[in-house]
Design goal:
The chain is of the alpha+beta class. The protein is built from 3 helices and 4 strands, in the order H-E-E-H-E-E-H. The chain is globular and about 35 Å long. The protein starts with 5 loop residues before the first helix and ends with a helix.
């Protein structure tokens, strides 16, 4: 998988509300009503993540989940990161 060009990356991020590029990674901070919803998001997302074999850098603190996506083998953000971000958005909408 090839790293996205700046033009393609800009267009992709514009299509993903709430996402940005931070420190060379696709970045999003989610806030849920409580810990159960935040953890539920992570647990549910883990199934899709494992199926894609593309694992995020993420952390949880009470009702927040911070996600950073990059494709280490490509040295940056790829279409696979954009695809995973889209899946995470779909899951988050169900739990917020």
């Amino acid at each position: 998988m090839a790293k996205l060009s700046e033009t393609d990356l800009t267009a992709a991020v514009e299509a993903l509300p709430g996402w940005s590029v931070k420190n060379g990674k696709l970045h999003r901070e989610y806030e849920f009503p409580d810990f159960v919803h935040a953890f539920g998001f992570m647990a549910t997302a883990a199934i899709a993540i494992e199926a894609m074999e593309h694992h995020p850098e993420w952390s949880n603190s009470w009702n927040q989940v911070v996600v950073n996506l990059t494709t280490h083998d490509a040295g940056g953000i790829t279409a696979k990161d954009i695809l995973l971000a889209g899946k995470l958005e779909e899951l988050a909408k169900r739990l917020r």
